[in-house]
Amino acid sequence: MKIYTRTGDKGNTSLVGGERTNKYDLRVWAYGSIDEANSSIGLARACIEDKKLEDKLLKIQKTLFEVAAELASLGTKDYKPRIEDDEVIFLEDTIDELDKMRPVQNGFIVPGGTMESAHLDVARTDVRRAERYISELKNYYEVNNSLQKYVNRLSDAVYAIARYFDYKDILKKAEEKLTELKGDGKINAKGNLKKSLLTKAVLNRETAEYITGKCIEKSREIGVPMVICVVDFDGNIILLERMDNSLLISIKVALKKAYTAAALKSPTGDLYESSLPGGEFYGLNHEKDIVTFSGGFPLKIGDDIVGAIGVSGGTIDEDTSVSHYGVEVFEEVVKYGTKR
């Protein structure tokens, strides 16, 4: 059988059942747009190595053949509903599953973050176009409600899958950045040795006890029991002190603040904006050992970060006040070479 039939040479085509209509028939626009969306999803699927998501997209593509066939039979004697709510539920379950894996989004995403998400975003817009034609078809035909829900939910599902790949890429880059900033023992070994010597000379347990003691005095002044943690430049604990009646959860939070400040070489409060969509560290706040709210500060000797302090137990302002005071105490030790 030849690919070409010549039956459409005069600008008409066949619907399901053989009825002929013009190629500009709204039904043709609708199922033609579904065909475009199917091809776009196929292009995206060809770039995806995640077997589970590849299988989901393949299932969607097979369903889209049924969507197109149903649209191509509207108004004919051969019309029958082909899409049921089970297919809608499949998309909703997919969306819910992927939404649990990504951070809350508070703004628009510029398409093109990854090859996979870029192709999926094109497919999403193709689905949206098809949905507009289907919505117009309701003025002339009785459109299956489950079909309309499916196409509407499909654009959401494709969007969720696209954002999943963006988020995975962001996490990968953030982890690489984190490793680079921390140093992995193979690069910058000379610099790490220098910091190690500085830490042992100045930021040792004795100094950590002094800083912590001063922070406890400050905490008592404001009437808030806190947890104070001092770590070295690699984020390893030098000293962690919990005041009586401080919250147990503050032990973990104080450590995370100190670790984050040391690993990312930045006050934790300064990381909040960059962890939002579009920021350098977007998604990093979902790493288990990272926090992006205030209360953690690096400890420096000149331009060298030799450790960090983290404080938790009060409000953001109270934690910040006490931890920043700890930095000032450490700077005095460095400046005067003695504890006052």
Kindly describe this structure.
39% of the residues are buried. This protein folds into two domains: 168 residues, Up-down Bundle (Hypothetical Protein Ta1238, Chain: A), CATH 1.20.1200; 145 residues, Beta-Lactamase, CATH 3.30.450. It starts with 11 loop residues before the first strand and ends with a helix. The protein is an alpha+beta fold. Helix content is 54%, strand content 10%. The strands form two sheets. A four-stranded antiparallel sheet has the order 4-3-6-5. The protein has a two-stranded antiparallel sheet with strand order 1-2. The chain is elongated and about 95 Å long.
Count of individual domains: 2
What profile does the largest beta sheet have? 4 strands, antiparallel
Number of helices: 9
Q: Name the overall outline.
A: elongated
Strands, count: 6
The overall pLDDT, averaged over residues, is 84
What is the spatial order of strands in the main beta sheet? 4-3-6-5
Return Rg in Å: 30 Å
Low-confidence stretches: 184-191
Question: In the CATH hierarchy, what is the architecture of the largest domain at level 2?
Answer: Up-down Bundle
Query: What is the CATH topology descriptor of the largest domain?
Result: Hypothetical Protein Ta1238, Chain: A
Q: Could you name the CATH homologous superfamily of the largest domain?
A: Cobalamin adenosyltransferase-like
Q: Share of helix among residues?
A: 40-55%
